[in-house]
Amino acid sequence: MLTSMRQLVLASLIAFPLTTIAASPSSSLFVSPKKDLVFSLNVPNDTSSSDLFFSLAFPVSPSWVAVGLGASTMGGNPLVLMAYPSASGDSVTISPRRSYGHSEPVYDSGINVTALPGTGLFNDTTYVFEGVCSNCRSWSHNGKIDISSAAQEMVYAIGPSAGTASNNPRESLKVHESYGSFTMDLVHATGAGGVPVIPTVKDITSVGAAQKLAKSGYKDNKAILHAVFMILAFVGIWPFGILVLRVGGSPRWHAINQTVSFGLVLVGAILGFVISTSYNRSKKFNTPHQVIGILVFVFVIIQLGLGFLHHRIYKKTQQPTKIAPVHVWLGRLVILLGVVNGFTGFPLALSPGYDFALLGVVSFVLLSFLAILFIEPWARAQPEVQQPPAGYIVGDPQTPVRMGVPPQGARQFV
Which of 60, 123, 120 is nearest to 94 (CA)? Predict the structure, then answer.
C-alpha cells in the first residue's frame, strides 16, 4: 500500500500544479525553473555507508535529463546522473556518466547505480527514477561531493523534446536545450538512509537547494552553420559555377564562384571537426558521414589546384590541356559526393527528418539546372531580330533616311 501511495504521489508530480511544502528532513530537493526536472537527494548518516539515495522525476516531453554532482560547470569534473525513457517507454534508463569538458558526458561502468521500486512511467505523464548509488561520493581525478557542505555545487541539463528511448546506458544524445547550476544543502539531506519521496503539492519549490545559473533555448549553432555552409556550397554555389562557365562563358567568374565555394567548404569542414569532438557518436571520426566528408575535402583541394593549373597553362598556350577533363569529371564527382553526404549528416545529428527537406532542395536545384542547360542551346539557336537604329524611320528597307521630312508613305518606327 505504501508503494502504491508513493507511485501515486510521484505520478502527479508534474502532471498537476504544486504548492510549497518542506521536503523530508533527511533530503534536499531541487526543482528546475520550468519544473521539468525535480531531483531529491538523501545522504545516509550511517558512517560505514558510502551510499547516496536519490529520486529524479521529469515529464515525458524532454528526451533526457541529467544532474551533475560536485561541480558548478560541466568542465568542473562532475559525476553525471543522466536519465531517459527506456526502449519500451514505460520505464527509465539511468546512465551514470563522467564529464570531460564541454562535450557529451561518457558512460562510466564503474559507477554503481541500482534502480529501486518506484521507478517507471506514471499516469503517462511523468517518468520517475528511484535509486541508490553505492560509490557516488568520490570519483577519479579528485572528483567528490562534500557531505558536510551546506552549499554543494551541482549542475543540471535538460534535453530537447522527446526523441530518445533506449535501454543502452551508452546511448548518444542530442545537446541540451536548457541547463544551469544550483547548490544543495547536504547537511539538510543527511539522515536515516532511504529513497527520498518527492512531495506532491501545488507549486513545488526547492528545499535545501538554491538556483544559481539558468539558461534555456540553447542550440548547437556550430552544427547549424556546418549544415548551412555545406548545403549552400554543394547544392547551390558549386553547381551555379558550372552554369557560369557553360552558359555565361566566363572563366573569370567561374574561378571566383568556385573559390567562394571552397571558402564555405573550408569553414564548414573546420566546424564539422569541432562538432565531432563534442559527441560520443562522432569522436572516433569513423562514421560514413565523416569518412566521406574527409575524402570530399581532399578532392576539393585537388580540384582547386587542377583548376588553377589548367587556367594558367591555357593562358600561355591557348590550347586545351590534359588537365581539363580530369578537372571536369572530378568536379562532378565532388558535387555528387557532397550532396550524398548531406543525407548522411542529418541522421548522424539525430535529425533524420531534415533529409526530406534536403531532398526537396536538391530536386528543385537539379530540375532548374537541367532546364537551364536545355533551354540555353535552344535560345542561342533562335535568329536575332534586327532593330533599326535609333533616330531612323522605316520606309524603304533598303534606304533608311534621317528623321526630318519623311518620304511619302513612310511609317515612323517607335
Answer: 120
Cα 239–244–246 angle (5° rounding)?
90
Q: Which three cell numbers stand for residue 152?
A: 554543494
Cell for 305?
Answer: 589546384
Query: In the 8-state DSSP scheme, what is residue 91?
Result: S
Instruction: Give the domain ranges of the chain.
Output: 14-215, 221-381
* CATH superfamily membership of 14-215: Cellobiose dehydrogenase, cytochrome domain (2.60.40.1210)
- 28-72 pLDDT, tens digit each: 999 999 999 999 999 999 877 789 999 999 999 889 999 999 988
364-369 contacts: CB < 8 A, separation 24 or more? 365/235, 365/236, 365/239, 369/239, 369/242, 369/243
For 207, the 3-state DSSP assignment is strand
Contact yes or no for 285/297 (Cβ under 8 A): no
Q: Residue 190 and residue 26: Cα distance in Å, rounded?
A: 5
Q: Angle CA(79)–CA(82)–CA(88) in degrees, nearest 5?
A: 155
Handedness of CA 252, 257, 262, 267 (dihedral sign): positive
User: Which pLDDT score, from 0 to 100, does residue 275 have?
Assistant: 95
Q: How many other C-beta atoms are found inside a 10 Å radius of the C-beta of residue 3?
A: 9
Indicate the pTM of the whole model: 0.79
Helix (H) or strand (E) holding 81: strand 79-85
Burial class (CB in 10 A: 0-12, 13-18, 19+), 236: middle
φ/ψ region of 89 (left if φ > 0, alpha if ψ in -120 to 50, else beta) reads left
